[in-house]
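Hi V.,

Quick status before I head out on leave. The structure for the redesign project is tokenized and pasted below; the design run finished overnight.
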């Protein structure tokens, strides 16, 4: 029998389970490098990772070369502390000197500018009003170098708004993505992440919860353009021939909807 309890897992376990279930930052970095080169014919060197959580991506960013620099911003010190104790110590001292953790709000003004800003894992969905999102996008644009690129991801599909709990098995644990309810009048949706630890069979409910506005690709492109970005580029994932995505995202304006998809938008300064 499965026991279900409200999650009380300590941060060391919670963030480790989150990272192994949700993130694929090495693929994100390859994608950013490829698209930035395509846009500006040079490699991006500086990154601002907004809503960074544990900042695992920013830590990997600075490992690319002696010229790579990263700023990772999160408003919550708990994931930052996890990153500082688990990822930062694995960097050499030279890499550490190029890795900057920032405890703060992505809406604040910062003195540094970067080649790339990313807001991944849909985190900017936290801005539920168009005015708030426009304000955020404007601030991102101001914080980019002249040849700068802003990458966001988003998800959708016919199942994205349906009350549904999707389970994915991992080594030693199960990950659950739980959509509790979509309000068609506000486009707001409540999501939860639960984990089941296999060694004891306990399902730890609501390890993470997200109250989000479900933005569409078209809305986002319009708001990015209103924020002053000169160009927005939309992507779609190729198919592996067995009904799943192949992990390769290509630039297109035309796609066929499906039950569930994740994609990127790139906005150029
Ligand atoms: C969905 S997690 C994403 C973590 C990471 N980016 C990833 O890819 O998995 C959202 C993060 O955004 C942070 N956050 C929410 N609002 C924020 C804000 N206004 N400024 C900075 N961070 C914020 C939360 O503390 C949380 O760590």
């Amino acid at each position: 029998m499965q026991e279900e309890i409200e999650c009380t897992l300590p941060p060391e376990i919670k963030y480790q389970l989150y990272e192994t279930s949700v993130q694929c930052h090495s693929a994100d970095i390859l994608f950013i490098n490829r698209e930035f080169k395509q846009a500006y014919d040079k490699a991006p060197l500086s990154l601002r990772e907004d809503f960074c959580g544990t900042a695992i991506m920013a830590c990997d960013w600075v490992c690319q070369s002696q010229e790579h620099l990263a700023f990772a911003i999160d408003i919550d010190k708990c994931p930052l502390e996890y990153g500082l104790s688990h990822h930062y110590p694995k960097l050499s001292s030279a890499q550490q000197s190029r890795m900057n953790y920032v405890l703060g709000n992505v809406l604040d003004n910062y003195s540094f500018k970067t080649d790339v800003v990313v807001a991944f894992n849909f985190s900017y969905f936290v801005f539920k009003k168009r005015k708030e999102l426009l304000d955020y996008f404007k601030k991102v644009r101001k914080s980019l170098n002249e040849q700068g690129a802003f990458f966001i991801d988003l998800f959708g599909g016919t199942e994205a708004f349906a009350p549904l709990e999707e389970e994915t098995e991992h080594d030693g644990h199960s990950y659950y993505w739980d959509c509790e309810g979509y309000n068609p009048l506000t486009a707001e949706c409540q999501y939860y992440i639960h984990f089941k630890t296999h060694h004891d069979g306990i399902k730890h409910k609501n390890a993470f919860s997200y109250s989000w506005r479900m933005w569409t690709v078209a809305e986002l492109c319009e708001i990015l353009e209103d924020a002053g970005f000169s160009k927005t580029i939309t992507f779609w994932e190729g198919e592996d021939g067995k009904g799943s995505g192949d992990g390769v995202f290509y630039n297109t304006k035309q796609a066929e909807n499906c039950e569930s998809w994740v994609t990127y938008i790139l906005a150029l300064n």
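Above is the designed sequence. Residues 22-23, 51-53, 73-76, 79, 105-107, 120-121, 123, 126 surround S-adenosylmethionine (CB under 6 Å).

G. will cover questions while I'm gone.

Best,
W.
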